[in-house]
């Protein structure tokens, strides 16, 4: 089994990523060691509450802990207009109490599993903070996949910046500036190709069958559909984080190239990620098998019936 730790900010597409990881855990294909949350789509404590609700719906026992409450150096901005008042669309669940110590969960997972896969689908705040507080354990993270950035591509928050990197640009810059091994980066130019629309949602619900979460997905996804429609992108939703998990775990075909990525932290270029000259620090994903990703989601959903 592949040991997996996910750092996320649920968030609607994070919710589907957690659904997918829970399915792989049920199938015995991964060991979901834990879930930590960042402040981004909502607060870190609300994101942890959302993640705990998803976990309980999916009947897994992975620990869920809230991480750093604010970005490294800029004020926190959340996005209720995109993901709903508390991050789960039209659904609302309580925030999690600030219990436990999330770095201890990371340390335990790293010490237990040499081949730990860390998947970051929110801002890189926890990853950067962990490097600063636990450099010796950070140096052992050799399999890190990040959803974020827009490399040579338009942004979704500013003309050049993607949301996760814009929320905490200093953390993103730190994550790519101090990586012990090249980070696999799933950026907008690939992840926004993975779309769910109402017919695909109906199919997902059918595949989930009696799984408790199935009945809640319409209220969660409807908000996301409406947001994308208001942005002129049609009544559908880009599911960035789910595709990122599939790529991280080599469950879909994809292409990548080795590059150096740096992240700007200042002014109008805040959060802008770009390819620069120098030693490669990134496995930049350039394409993915989207049809294969939909088939993989079907396979996973049926495991949760």
Automatic annotation (TrEMBL):
Pfam families: IU_nuc_hydro
GO MF, one annotated term: hydrolase activity
Domain Inosine/uridine-preferring nucleoside hydrolase: residue ranges: 4-292
The organism's place on the tree of life at top rank: Bacteria
Gene3D superfamilies listed in its UniProt record: Ribonucleoside hydrolase-like
SUPFAM superfamilies associated with the record: Nucleoside hydrolase (SSF53590)
Sorted UniProt keywords: Glycosidase, Hydrolase
Entry-linked InterPro entries: Inosine/uridine_hydrolase_dom (IPR001910), IUNH (IPR023186), Ribo_hydro-like (IPR036452)
Protein known as: Nucleoside hydrolase
Organism this protein belongs to: Corynebacterium suedekumii
């Amino acid at each position: 089994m592949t040991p997996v730790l996910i750092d996320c900010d649920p968030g609607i597409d994070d919710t589907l990523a957690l659904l997918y990881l829970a399915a792989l855990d049920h199938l015995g294909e991964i060991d979901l060691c834990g879930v930590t949350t960042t402040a981004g789509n909502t607060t870190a404590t609300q994101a942890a509450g959302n993640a705990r609700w998803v976990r309980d719906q999916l009947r897994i026992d992975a620990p869920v802990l809230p991480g750093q409450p604010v970005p490294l150096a800029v004020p926190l901005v959340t996005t209720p207009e995109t993901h709903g008042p508390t991050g789960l669309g039209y659904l609302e669940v309580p925030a999690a109490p600030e219990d436990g110590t999330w770095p201890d969960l990371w340390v335990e997972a790293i010490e237990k599993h040499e081949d730990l896969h860390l998947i970051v689908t929110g801002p890189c705040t926890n990853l950067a903070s962990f490097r600063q507080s636990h450099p010796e354990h950070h140096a052992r993270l050799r399999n890190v996949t990040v959803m974020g950035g827009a490399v040579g591509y338009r942004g979704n928050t500013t003309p050049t910046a993607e949301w996760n990197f814009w929320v905490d640009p200093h953390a993103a810059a730190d994550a790519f500036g101090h990586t012990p091994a090249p980070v696999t980066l799933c950026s907008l130019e690939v992840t926004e190709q993975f779309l769910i629309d109402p017919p695909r949602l109906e199919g997902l619900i059918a595949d989930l069958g009696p799984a408790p979460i199935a009945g809640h997905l319409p209220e969660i996804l409807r908000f996301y559909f409406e947001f994308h429609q208001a942005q002129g992108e049609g009544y559908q939703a880009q599911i960035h984080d789910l595709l990122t998990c599939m790529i991280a775990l080599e469950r879909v075909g994809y292409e990548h190239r080795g590059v150096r990525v740096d992240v700007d932290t200042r002014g109008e270029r805040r959060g802008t990620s770009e390819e620069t000259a120098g030693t490669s620090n990134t496995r930049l994903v350039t394409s993915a098998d989207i049809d294969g990703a939909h088939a993989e989601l079907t396979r996973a959903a049926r495991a949760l019936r």
